[in-house]
Amino acid sequence: MRNSLIYKAAFVAGFGALSSIVVSVPAHAQWAVYDGAAHVQTVLIAARELQQVNQQAQSLLNEATMLENQARNLANLPLSVLAPLEQSIEATQQIVGQAQGLSYNLTSIDQAFSQTYPQALGSPSSAAQMTADAQTRWQNARGAYQDGLRVQTGAVQNLDATRSQIDSLVTSSQAASGALQAAQSGNQLTALQTRQLADLTAVITAMGRAQAMEGARQVESEEQGRAQLMTFLNYGAGYTPGTAQMFH
Question: What is the pTM for the complete model shown?
């Protein structure tokens, strides 16, 4: 009986000592616990941040491409035919400005028609004056035809240069890197067409002037013929009979 009491006392004492040892164990000796949900959440956040970085990089790349395209659209066309166009137009103007006889001036035309191409010849003129006036009208008509041919020749000579310029502009337009270069090519092609229209206008004007001068010469020749006929027919009162003494 006594031995059993001794055993019980020893067991209680040992259990108490073991309990004190377990309680006194530090907290860092416990086992770590893995939180899977928190790890998945961290991975998702990192993936979203990476996606945002990729989107920002793509946006920067798109902006760089847009700026590059804008630079191409704003690039000037390296070819220009405006200077040769201006030179050819000036050459045509010089030819037209060198018109012989009557110039392209309203005041001088009115004065010439009142003097050299009068509507009616009043008082009889001398034969020398009529001949001089007819010579002047003939020279004006001849000079006008010559001027017309000179303008035509200038327009024909411009055709070779125009063809070469059109070929160059079409080639530049097809190889244009941007909208501005293509538009500039189109504008210069339009300018070439305008130059051709200007040449055509000059030719038509010159030939019309020549025809007008020839027509005026013919009309004035008819008036001069009428005046000469009237002078010839107006020989005075005619024959008046009178007495004549034949023998003394």
Answer: 0.57
